Amino acid sequence: MTTTEYWDRTHLYEQVWQQPVSKLARTYGISDVALAKVCRRLKVPLPARGYWAKPLHRRPKRPPLQAMSAAPRLRRPTRAQSKTETLSPITEGVSESERAELAIVTRLESCRAETRGPEALEPDVLVTRTRRALSRGTTDGRKILRPRAGSTCLDVRVSKQTLDRALGVFDKLLATLRAEGFPVKVGGTGGQLTSVQILGQGIRIGLLENVRRIQLPNPSKPTDYFSSYYSRAAVRYEPTGDLYLQVWNSCRNVRKSWRDGKHQRLERVLHKVVAGMVRVAQAERREAEMMRRAAELYRIEEEFRQKRQAELVFLKGLIESEERRVRRLEEAAENWVRAKRIREYVIAFVRSKMVEGQQLVHGSALGKWAIWAMDQADRLDPLAASPPSVLDRKWELAGQYR
User: Which residues of the chain have pLDDT under 50?
Assistant: First the structure.
């Protein structure tokens, strides 16, 4: 529960000289920078740097609180805390499962380097199987052991001299993982096939050894252009004995490698390694959730796009159909006007011929022409029945009758 009040200069002055500002700021739920800014605005003097580190008898006297004529009224958030409220600002608003995961990470990371991990009386079955597979295998050009073909073992890529220590590290790591309830699975021969099930995610791990690349001097330098262009300098590889544990998952913004340091070996930080694997699992789960949401958003957008595309296709069909109707209407109106003009012309033409002395009788040339012309007007008129004409057989000239 959070309420809002106003800062009291006198009360704040007493508080900042009784405990450090960083500790006092946490009681108000704000940062020490924000609290120092409030003190500057209210002209409340603060202890100098290093004040609380000095003994009590050597601390300087606090300066008096100067009077302020018009002190600004600044809102102060206060958090009503009960005895049962023990949540820190980091864990507020976090679900129970995430809080339990955070507790696992905090507990593992808080283990001291001197704390030894759980050790079994006998080596793990996977460690024994890996030792047998690597001892019967071969070495590559980098002097790294390769397991025998067809064998199932842990992803260990070290030299023969470092094999015992590497298997000991993996044995302690397996014991720590199983003590936390994280099972280990081995898929087969090859790299990136050793996985740990953490928070429902498969975390692929491998133990490797650093190899130093040493370039050898070339006694005979080739003089030919092509041979010098394609020739490679002679090199050799020397394992350094430094181990590092690598997480092969592709998640980002999280640590995925732990190495031997100058003052601390990999065996002494296995708890932090397991804590890092938990963080990798959390990052993997977050990215999977983001990908699921992105896929769901893409599916919704694709459905909307397809629906919109279908609507546009349907709308295009309606528009084209309406345009065809409009064109037919315009053509019918034009043909009606043309038919009317033809009829008026035929009547005027017949009258002019009758004035000249020709008679409009059945069987005469003027009568035949008048009937033919009126038929052509009826063929154009959309409101009249179309009489037969030889033009109706024009289609016979195309195709096989041509």
Answer: 1-2, 80-92, 114-117, 120, 402
Question: Encoding tokens for residue 98?
Answer: 């995430």
Residue-wise pLDDT for 36-49, tens only, equals 889 888 889 999 88
CA 127 to chain centre: 37
The model's pTM is 0.58
Residue written as token pair 């004035």 = 355
Do the beta carbons of residue 236 and residue 221 sit within 8 Å? no
Which pLDDT belongs to residue 87? Answer: 39
**Is 240 in a helix, a strand, or coil?**
strand
- Alpha-carbon separation of residue 271 from 123, 173, 195, 200, 276 (angstroms): 19, 8, 17, 20, 9
184 neighbors 283 (Cβ within 8 angstroms): no
Distance CA 175, CA 184 (A): 10
Task: For residue 93, give the 3-state DSSP assignment.
Answer: coil
Rounded to whole angstroms, the Cα distance separating 212 from 62 reads 61
